[in-house]
Amino acid sequence: MAPTTRRRAPTTLGAALAGTAALPAARARALGGHRGLRPLRHAHAHNDYDHPRPLLDALDHRFGSVEADVFLVGDRLLIGHAAELDPARTLESLHLDPLAARVRANRGRVYRGWHRSVQLLVDIKTEGSSAYRELDRHLRRHPHLFTTCARGRVHPGPVTVVVSGDRAARAPMEAQGERRAFHDGRLTDLGSAAPASFAPLISDNRTLHFTWQGEGPFPDAERRKLRSIAGAAHAHGQRVRFRATPDTPGPARDALSTELLATGVDFPNTDDLAGLEAFPDARPSA
Prior knowledge:
The protein is α/β, with parallel strands linked by helices. Helix content is about 30%, strand content about 20%.
C-alpha cells in the first residue's frame, strides 16, 4: 500500500513573534545538535509522522518530545493514520533505529551535551494489551537506549518512552517487574496510587476542562484551575500535557501558549515545528 501521508504547509508562529528562522536542516544534522541553542524540553511534536522527515524534523527544531500513532498489524507496529498505513513505515524504522543511531553518534545522548531524556510518546491506536507486549519486544532490542524502571526505581536513559492511547496497555505494564516504558496518566490519576515511576506524564483533553480559546482575558477561575493541576502534578514528580489545543497561527494561539507555559503546563502540542521552536525562545521560562 503506497503511503498517503499528509504534508502540512509550514507556518511560523516565530515569524509573528520574533522573526526567528529555524536552523538549516543540513547543518543541524551535521552537528548532531544546535550550537549555542539548547533543546526545548517543553516542546511536543504532535503527529510527528506527518512531517516530511519523521523524528528528524522535530530534532532539527530542538523538540524535547515527539509523538507517534501506532497500529499493531501482525507483529509490526505501523506508524500513521488508519487509512494511510504503509508496511514500510514502522516505529522501528522511523523512530527507534534513528534514535539509536543518533545516541551512538552523540556520545550517549539524543542532543550532544544535553543530559535530559527525550520523550517518545507512543499513542496506541489498536487493542492496547497486545500492542504494548509487541512494543516491549521492540524496546528490548535496544537495551541501552531507554529509561527503565526496575522494582519502582527509575534508571534514566537517553529516551523515555511513554505509552498513551488504548488504556488496556496499563495492565501488562503494571504487571512487569522491569519496564522500558511508562504510562501516560489522566487527570483522574492525580493524587492516586499511581506514582511518577509508573505515570510520569499526565495528559488530558483541554476542551473537557477549559473553555478559553485564547481570545479575550483568561478567566481567573480557569487560570487557578490550571495552576492547581500543574502544581499537583509537579508536587508528585509528574509533568502535564494538554491535547486539543488550537494550532492555527495567530494571536489566540500565542495567548493560549503563553498561559499554558506560565501556569506550569509542560508540553504544548503543535504540528507547527518552526513556530513553537521560536516561541519558547522569546520566553525566559523555556
